Amino acid sequence: MNNFKLWVNPKKCKGCLRCELVCSYHKSEHKLFKPALSSTKVLRSNENKVITMKIDETCDFCESEDVPLCVKYCVFGARGVMK
Amino acid sequence: MKKISDKHYSYAGNILRVNLTTGKIWTEPTEKYAKRWIGGRAINTWILLNELNPEIKWSDSENILTFGVGVLVGTLAAGACRVSVDTKNAFNNGIGSANVGGFFGAELKFTGFDNIIISGKSKTPVYLWINNGKAELRDAASLWGKTTWQTEKIIRRILNDERIRVATIGPAGENLVKSACIIADRGCAAGGSGCGAVMGSKNLKAIAVRGTKSIEIAQPEKFISAVDKEMCRINKWQLIKEIREKGYYGAMGGRLDSPSWEQGYRPVRNGQDEYWSKDKVAKIAEQEIKKYREGTVSCFSCPISCKPWMDIKEGIYKIQGEGWWNNSANSYCTKIDNTNIEAAIYAHLLTNQLGLDGDNAAQAISWAFECYEKGLITKKETDGLELVWGNYQAMLEMLKKLAYREGFGDFLADGALKAAKKLGNNSEKFVIHVKGQDSLDGVRINKGWGFGIILSPVAGRHLRGSLNGFWLRSDRPINSYENVPEDLYYNQKKKAIQDILGLCSYVYGQTVDDWVELFSSATGRLLSKDELLHIGLQAHNLEKAFNTIHAGFDRNDDYPCERYYNEPVKSGPYEGEHIDHEIWDSMLDTIYRLHGWDIETSWQTRKGLEKIGLSDIVDKLEKENRLK
């Protein structure tokens, strides 16, 4: 098991939800895009753009990957890894 | 809902059908249409072409309103979020088509539906609630009269879920204003063609969606590899880095040195000119916009984040919300010669709330300003408003009057051309329209851009392959006619495919080769680049046929309006620039020939249609005596 710990920065997040998509892809063993399955949840308020980012206990830190996929696919630098 | 078949990956699998007159709701498999039309826009057009009689008008209950989500939406493909909304055009009864991003489309697919096809008319206001494969009509009495922003908030509160996505009309749609649009996710507009008015005519206030279903990919590793390859290229591009920071306008069109300002092609004072002086541009350019921008936000699955978040923190125009575009600068600044940027930002966010398409609405209003300038109308007709160039307070009042059909707003609510016919006095000569629809853009300088706009089946909208000379062909001056019809012919096919796949045109750097890889690996259906573009060609021809059958358009409708065809540009580096009539005719001949259409009438021919595999629409055209 890897020793990843994740950090998130809502101020950098743009709310694209690519993290949710790729997390579900990982959790479905590379078969599905299903945000409902994602261990991370991102919600942007349409009223004031405030973003909340959560990672729940079902996250396995992408055991089989070199880098957690939600980090790899975030182009805005809103997620990272602490070792 | 079951998948349509194991071989139809990347689809939700079903199409939702709703008859608002009877309340009947049913489904059909997407597979019925997907083999031939792939998805989104093309499925919508095919259904409209086959199920609507030419006698039906846009506001008749028999008209059909369609929502089609692109095939790649719901996946990790960059910018795959777009939905095509297609119906009869409220301005001319030809094809109406609007395209919207945001989150609504992806959420709709996660409910299990690729398209929604809505017919009939409800006796009372309703909204459609689609939740994980189940759909129901709900009473919308309490929503009627509410703005789009209020409607989203109320629906989320009633259904107790902040992740519900809402596409709704505002007061403009309810009041059948022709410039009414449909607003999704509070800031994304399905604008143009009066789609919001069609929705209002059906007493359908909103569609709310929430889904937890999945999209399955045929060849996941190949698909991810295609996504990675495209992203690798996109991420290296300096322009993309700037857009992420400043938004599309801040990084491109809003730059002081943007060719669109330095050279022209912005519609100024109702299109009297296409060049705005530098001192005026400086007041609405990036250096000013950034004072009100609080970062940028993305649509679903978009790694670009081109939408600025605008926030006016104090004063009479205190407001916040997403978006400020090139079009906004045209609509609320150059068109009426306004340099008050706070009022302009407020106008943009106000139109979103009212459910007005800014392009259409501002065009009609700027025509009224010119009527006032010419003395054809006075304060008596305008309810006391002084429609003098630069009067932004009057512009804001007019937007409200338009949405509510109040006073002089009612006079303008069916578009400038209809208003001009009522007003007379040669006011029709300076209506900026294409095929009856109020049109935003200048067309005299940027020839590729202009030719695409006039030739668009969606009547004067630039998202049918218009060639932006600044970005696509830097090797030729923007006023060059060189290769314009040939390039437009190609781009019409390409744009159709982009819409069918549900990709956003602001994801710069995408190529058709990228799309082939993404499409093939996502769906498991191997199509070559040529095969994909051929379907794009067919899709474009469906819209052409719809216009011929339903609106009777012919070659005469493929010319610019009076002002743009006969008056030269007044100032700037392209002062005196005009449209050469002989070359325009020659370009029409060329593009008709490329399509296999009749040169004299522009109508499609039996031979041409059979050649591209559309022999089954020959009968429809023949029945109307509009086949050559």
Q: Between the first and last Cα atoms of chain A, what is the distance in angstroms? A: 13 Å
How confident overall, as mean pLDDT of chain B? 95
**Which sheet architecture does the biggest sheet of chain B show?**
6 strands, mixed
Percent strand of chain A:
15-25%
For the biggest sheet of chain A, the summary is:
2 strands, antiparallel
Q: Record the strand order, biggest sheet of chain B.
A: 2-1-6-3-4-5
Count of extended strands of chain B: 18
What characteristics describe this protein?
heterodimer; A: 83 residues; alpha+beta; two-stranded antiparallel ribbon; two-stranded antiparallel sheet; globular; B: 628 residues; six-stranded mixed sheet; 25 helices; disordered N terminus
Descriptive report:
Chain A is of the alpha+beta class and about 80 residues long. Chain A has helices at about 20-25, 70, and strands at about 5-10, 30-35, 40-45, 50-55, 80. In chain A, strand 3 and strand 4 form a beta hairpin. The longest helix of chain A is centred in the first third of the chain and has 10 residues, at about 20-25. The model of chain A has no long low-confidence stretch (mean pLDDT about 95). In chain B, helix 2 packs parallel to helix 21, helix 13 packs parallel to helix 15 and helix 18 (about 445-455) crosses helix 19 (about 485-500). Helix content of chain B is about 40%, strand content about 15%. Chain B is α+β, with helices and mostly antiparallel strands and about 625 residues long. A 6-stranded mixed β-sheet of chain B has the order 2-1-6-3-4-5, sandwiched between helices. Residues about 1-5 of chain B have low confidence and may be disordered. At the A-B interface, helix 1 and strand 2 of A face helix 4, strand 13, helix 7 and strand 14 of B. Strand 2 (about 30-35) of chain A pairs antiparallel with strand 13 (about 215) of chain B.
